[in-house]
Amino acid sequence: MTRRSLILVLALAAAVLAGALLWPKGRPVEVVRVVKAPLTQSVVATGRIATPARIALGSPLAATVLEVHVREGDRVRAGQVLVRLRADDAEALVAQASAALAEAEARLLQIDRLGRPLAAQQLVQAEANARVAGAEAERARRLVAQGFYAQARADDALRNHNNALAALDTARTQLAAQEAGGTEREAARARVEQARAQRLNAQARAAQLILTAPADGLVLTRKAEPGDVATAGKVLLELAEAGETRIYATVDEKNLRLLRLGQAARGVADAYPRQPFDGELYYLAPAVDPQRGTVETRFRIAAPPDFLRPDMTVSVETLTGRRESALVLPSEAVREPDGGKPWVLVARDGQAVRVEVELGLRGVGQVEIARGLAEGEQVILPTSGALEGDRVRIRDAAKPRVNGLQVPSGMAR
Question: pTM, whole model, 2 decimals?
Answer without folding.
Answer: 0.50
